[in-house]
Each structure stands twice: as C-alpha cells, then as structure tokens.
Amino acid sequence: MEALQETEEVQKTPDDAISLNISDSLDDVETDEAEKKASVASEELAFDWSSIDTSHLPSSYKTNSWQEKELLQLADHFFQQYTLLCPDRKPLFIHPVNECGVQKFVSTTVRPTLLPYPDMYYWSGCASFVCDYLIMEPLKCPITPPSSLYSPTTILKYQRGNCFDFTVLLCSLLIGAGYDAYCVHGYASLEMCSLDQTQELCPRLRKPPEVPEEEDPNKYRIKYPLEPQSKFELQQKAKEEKETEPAEEEEREEEVVMEVAKPKRDPLHGLRVHAWVLVLSGKRKVPETFFINPFTGNPHSTTDECFLGIESIWNHRNYWVNMQDCRKGCKDLSFDLSDSFCWEIMFSESNEPSQLPTESPKEDTDNMEKEEIDMSFEMPLSWVARIKVSGREYENPFSKGKKVILYDKAKLEKWAAYANGDGLVERLTVYADSDRTEELEVKEWFKHREDLLYMREVNKKTQLITDHFRPGHPLLLKAHSYTSLEPETGHTVEFYHTARVDGLWKRFENATEMTEYFVGREDFLHMRHTEFGEREKKMEQAGITAHANNPRPIVQIKEYFHRNPEKPADEDIEERVFMVIDDVIQLTYHLELHDTIASQVVFCRVIGREKREDEIFLSRENTVKYQPWSSEKHKNMLHLYNLLWELRAEQKELKQQVRDSEAEMLNILMVREDEEANIKLSVSVYSTTKRGQEHDARV
Predict the structure, then answer these.
(1) Which end of the chain is more exposed for a tag (fewer CB within 10 A), N or C?
(2) Per-residue pLDDT tens for 177-194?
(3) 0.70 cut: is pTM over it?
C-alpha cells in the first residue's frame, strides 16, 4: 500500500486533486530526472534491452504450459476481485512480460538456487554479490512498476537491471540458501530508489554499538555529599559564557545556512516505486525480521523510515497483498503472513477458500450472490533455467573493473581479487568536506598477499602509515606504524606475542629511545625503556648497514615489573634503572597497602675511583641508600654485595638484549622494504580461474 502524501492546502475533489498533484509533481521532477538520466548516459552508453538475442532461450521462456495458463487465469480472477474491493489501490504487480514478451506470474520467475561458493550460503554474501555484479538501472517511470520482468539468467548475462530484477535474483539465491525470503513491491525514499548514498555514513566508518554498563543494584549504598563549588569560579564561567555568546550566534547562522543548503523535499515522496527483499525470522536461525536493499546489499530494520509502504510480497510458492495501513510507513506493519486481516493470500495453502468475494455478472443486483472460490492451487515449477555463475564471474563481479561508491565525506572503491598487482581489493578515502576535496585518511584492504598484509591506514595530515598483518608472518608481525622505512625515523611494531618466547607484543623506536612492552612473562616484566646517546660524528653514515656497524651508545635502561604475589612487597622490584654511562643502578620496590613511599636501593660509583669490570667496591656510606623500612636483607652488606654482582651480570645481558632488539628492528625494516619492492600474491586453492591462468602461462 502506498504511503500517503501530506495533504495540500488547496481543496479539490479527490480524483482531481490526486491527478493534479501527480502531474504537477511529475512536471517538477521532469527536469531533475532528465538531468540524472543524462548524467548516467554520459558515464555509460544506454543499454537497449529490445536488441537482446532471445533465439537461444529455452521454450519455457517463449511459451506457457497449461499449468501456467491456469495460473494466469486464477491471477486475473484475483486481480479483478482486488480492483473491485480496493478501487483506490494501485494495480498489483502480478504477471509482467518476460524478455520474450510472454506473460509470466511473478512467483514463477523466482528460481531458488544455491551457488557452490562458501560465501553464497549466507545472506550477506548473496547480497554483496548481487549489488556488486549488477549495474543499477532506474525505472522508466518512478511511480509505476515496470511492465516487464526478465529472468534472473538474462539479468546475470547482461549484468544490469532495475530494482525488481535485483530483488528477484537476490531472493532466488536467499531461498536457495535456506532463508525465508520474499520479494517486496512497495515505496521508498528518493535516495534509496536512485541509489544515492552521498548523505549516508559509510558502513566501514560505523562504530559498533557500545554495551551499556550495568547499574549497581544496591539501593542502600552510601550517598556522598556533592563537591563544594566556588562562587568565584561560577562567576568566571558566567563571564566566559557571555563572551562566547557572539560566537554561538555565528554558529547558529552557519547552521541556518546549512539547513538552506539541504536538498529540497521530494515532490514524489511516498509515490516512488521500489522493490527489495524481506527476510523473516525463524529459518537459518534469523533472530529478527529485516529488509535487504538489493542496490547496496545492506540490511535494514523493518522500522526504517526509508521504506514508505508495501503493496505486495511474493516468493516461489505464493503471493500476498498487504491490507494494512501504511500512512506511517512500515513501522507498524505485522509480518505474520498467516493473519488474513493483515495479508490477503492469493492461493490458500490450507485448502481454505479465499476471503475475497466475487460478484455475479448478472445485471440484476438483487440476485447478486457472493461465491467462495477455491483458490487452492499447486504452484508450477519456475520457467527460469538453472542459475549458473562461473568461477571467473564470481571472482570478478565488477563489469567495469572496479566499483566506486560515494558516501557522506567518503569514497569507497572496490576491485576484484587479483585485479591489482599489489592485491588491493578495497580503498576507503575519508574527506574533511562534503565536496570530497581535502583528504584526511585513506584505508586500503588487500587479499592473497604472501606477506600477509591485509590492511593499510594512511593519515594524510601526519603521513603516518600503519600496516596490519594476518597471523603467520615469518617475523610474527601484527602491525607496523611508520612514516618512512628508513631506520630510527619513528617505528611502532606490534607482534603476535603468543608466538614469541619473550612475550614481546609492542616495540617503539626512534633515534633517541626504544620502548618495549611485554605480556605474560614469568618474571612479571611488562615494559623496558632504553635511552640512546648520539653517535660519533666521524662515523656517521646513511643506510641500514651503517646503523648496524655503528651502534648508538646506551645511556640508560629502565625496566618495570608487575607485582609478584609470592614475594613480600619490600623484596619485589617494581622499577629497575641501569644508568650505564653514570654507572648507577637504582632499585625501587613495590608498596605495601599501608605504605606511601617505596623502598629503594641505589648503587653508585665512588667518586674519584676508576671503573673496573672485574671489581666491585661496596661501601655503606657512599654506594648504598635505603629507606629505614626496607627489608632486613638490605642492611646486610654480604647480601648487597651479592645483589650488586647479580645486577652487574644482568646489566651485561640487558645491553646485549637491547642490541638484539636494534638488530631485529633493522631486519624488520629490510624485510618490509624487500616485500614492498617485490610484492607476491598467493593463489587460493578455490581460485580456479587464477590457477588456470598460471597453468596456461607455464605451458
């Protein structure tokens, strides 16, 4: 049922008003529609459907069987009753002609098919394939359904169609995959009918819904008094608000200008015909009934305001007419098809007579009787040939090589797998303005790369590049952020720490420092920070080899540890600092619950005494500092002496670990530079087309 338009102030007779409103609306949009068609024609040559070759089509396309003829008679009888009982309703979309000019019932045009590809077993895969594979064609008249409905096989062959063609093909694939899907003939907004997504947010930019935090069920918790507020601060805030009032007025004026710049209201709002898919809950564990827009492949709630009304729905077994009020769109509609008050079924599935009465053709109105016609009927099989999609067509769904979708301040580009030498399949560009002139961020997605790179983010303002990798990289890379692949220019590398022995999950390095983060270590180490000095100027050279041959001097190494519950707090180290150049070692221990200042032990080099690696000079007054509440062990000079020996040995190991980390970073940069210079794509075992091309190349 069409969604009713807002009433006009001018009062006329109903028939005249409706006809005048529609004609005026058509006059208003005639120029806009012509401009849109001209723009579409400029982008691609208009396709002439009358010139297609139908000689090779099966006989079922060109003739009707006796079952189909009987079906058309019953459909005509149903349509006559419908027009008599509902004269104000628009004509139903029941039996349009096919590509051979033969009338076919819409339910027989649906051909349930399950394609032999893993993604086509799910509604999202079917929807994305249909919207990517087909080119959208607008309806010739925006307020009436088309006069023809071609078979899904023909639509797939020429890779184009209107919303009804999209819907029938998608519904055939969904029913074949086991979904309770239906084709819908109804009314939608201008943006949905014309595939205009420039006012919508790109799905790639939508944030997942936040899970609300559960409130504390304790009603008797202590309510603390509110924090006191300073009167002076309140006065200052009031002054600031007065000063900012002119700026707020300017912002309001800008908002008014923006509102003026918004597109005008569609004069055909509520009259534009559209077709989409309805998926009922139940089968395939679908939790909730939803719509699918075949042009975009996106799911929508049945309460979405873009859907303005429904005339009828059908699948491969039956046809239902909506008898509910659609003045509020589809928000309040019930989709219980067994409810005869909401949906009038054409062919009774339980051998019950139809609720629609028929009038006797006799002229004597006194003798008119309502007869109940048995509308139980077994739907004939679909006249459409088997739907086939080859591996080449499935892997390369874009007829133009790529697909470009414009969103609000964003542009999304899609390519088929192996279309680009670097494995690029999708690129999202985010802009600062609606005219899409100033780029803010670019995200790229890749497939089948041997280096397992699957996404790259580029910040156009800071030129920061972040590469994301799938598990399995030889260097166990998870992410790599950089501005240049040159060493010591600022690199942040994340690893799959569960595959590493040392538990390292993140490392940041630049010219002066390096910070490493650890997870799940037995020694409870969670961070290590290293500071470097400047290289000797005489030996400064460019390139990775020069950095390896001329290491930076280590100034200081800091390590941070989590609390070890098996040790007392005053014996469990929280922070350990090795000042390599100053020859100072500082230990800071964890706090007990009642402590405010942490216990510390500091080993310092004696002033005026030369440093020797094989000698330790320990003096209570000059080399050890501790808090009075430290452990008793720290007051024992022998314990401190042994501790200092251990720290000296660990300092040597730490310096070697830092050098190993530097070497690992240089190796990562060398490998990544080589991978980007020589990009290789792996051939999937499911890609029969690509494997065939490689076989032909070898032969």
Answers:
(1) C
(2) 999 999 999 999 999 999
(3) yes
